[in-house]
Specification:
The protein is an alpha/beta fold and 357 residues long. The chain folds into two domains: 212 residues, 3-Layer(aba) Sandwich (Peroxisomal Thiolase, Chain A, domain 1); 131 residues, Thiolase/Chalcone synthase (Peroxisomal Thiolase, Chain A, domain 1, 3-Layer(aba) Sandwich). It has eleven helices and 13 strands. Strand 9, helix 9 and strand 10 form a beta-alpha-beta unit. Helix 2 crosses helix 5 and helix 8 crosses helix 9. The two termini are 13 Å apart.
Length: 357
């Protein structure tokens, strides 16, 4: 049974909310951290609601609304989200208030909005939706597990459609803390030149991406979500490649049938070497390779941005030049795209998208 992407909403450091354009205009940055642009769309809410929302919930709601509008104002049978960090800003506000107020007179709102399920819950309340609502907080597997839950529910017939999302935010304090782990570049870098040359670390990012998944195609179908694989491995690229080949085989494919691979290349020398090793074992003859993290930065659920890009590439039957890293063969049709992402070589994930025809 096929699972169809019938609507998409994406809020990112690029103008990705415009469904009529697919990376026609790309915003460049000279920075160590990329943050989302405020979408130039009607949020569909009264100002008094927007003022009370944290930035995470506001951008999450807008991304979800763009997705639902794109799908034709459908009502989801379930809302399933994934976030690696949850609401960082509200967590910081609450923890700082504990310190500053000496554990007394604590404001409740930041605490209420600091949980990982705050975005999904807020969307449900605004839609007056009382259906299944689940949030996953499994680090860089968060979006993939939300996607897996959605696929299982749709294939089991529990729902006809699902609103599935992946989101994470970055704050100045969070950036400073993770910078101590040597995650980020030491100096500001031009994001469109992130891969030249490679160095230690990458650029931090954030994003809010939602998909309207259904059991049946629509007039606005982007792609088919064929399968998802998550794999824990201690940087053993041979094990990763072997599991990826088995993953393709169980979906009736072989490496030669993959038109493009979207890899999570980030300009980090050690991390990118893992991608190259794995791809060389899966595709010894080479493969068309695209990347996305120079546009949105590195964050736990950036695979959701990659899924947005791959689904649009299948629908528009083109991979924009800004995404291309290496073109081995110019194929007339784009039928299958494999997305490969990893975090420190330990959490590895593969998402397979196909043409809906």
């Amino acid at each position: 049974m096929n699972i169809y992407i019938n609507g998409i909403g994406n809020v990112s450091p690029q103008k990705t909310w415009d469904q009529a354009a697919f990376l026609d205009q790309v915003k460049d940055y000279e920075s160590r951290m990329l943050q989302c642009l405020e979408p130039e769309v009607d949020p569909g809410l009264d100002e008094k609601y927007l003022r009370r929302m944290s930035r995470l919930i506001r951008l999450g709601w807008i991304a979800a609304k763009i997705c639902l509008d794109d799908a034709g104002n459908q009502r989801p049978d379930a809302i399933i989200t994934g976030s690696g960090w949850g609401s960082v800003l509200d967590s910081e506000k609450f923890l700082l208030s504990i310190y500053r107020n000496k554990e007394s007179l604590l404001p409740p709102t930041p605490f209420i909005q600091s949980t990982h399920n705050a975005v999904g819950a807020q969307i449900a309340m605004l839609l007056n939706n009382f259906s299944y609502n689940m949030a996953y907080s499994h680090g860089s597997f968060a979006f993939e597990h939300a996607l897996l839950d959605s696929i299982l529910g749709l294939k089991n017939g529990d729902y006809q459609n699902v609103l599935t999302g992946g989101f994470d935010e970055i704050t100045a304090n969070q950036f400073t803390l993770t910078d101590r782990l040597h995650r980020w570049r030491k100096q500001p870098v031009h994001n469109l030149q992130l891969f030249d040359p490679e160095a230690e670390g990458t650029i931090a990012g954030e994003g809010f991406t939602f998909f309207f998944l259904g059991r049946e195609p629509s007039g606005n179908t982007y792609a088919v979500v064929k399968d998802v694989l998550t794999l824990l491995s201690t940087e053993n690229t041979g094990i990763i490649a072997a599991n990826a080949l088995s993953f393709l085989k169980r979906n009736g494919l072989h490496p030669g049938m993959i038109d493009w691979v979207f890899t999570g290349l980030s300009g980090d020398q050690a991390g990118d070497a893992i991608y190259r090793d794995v791809l060389s074992m899966i595709f010894p003859a080479g493969v068309n390779n695209a990347a996305w993290k120079h546009l949105c930065g590195e964050y736990h659920t950036s695979a959701a941005f990659a899924t947005w890009a791959a689904a649009n590439a299948i629908k528009h039957q083109t991979v924009p030049d800004i995404l291309r890293i290496k073109t081995v063969e110019n194929r007339r049709d784009i039928r299958n795209i494999l997305i490969y992402n990893h975090f420190k070589g330990i959490q590895n994930s593969f998402i397979l998208l196909s043409y809906p025809g």
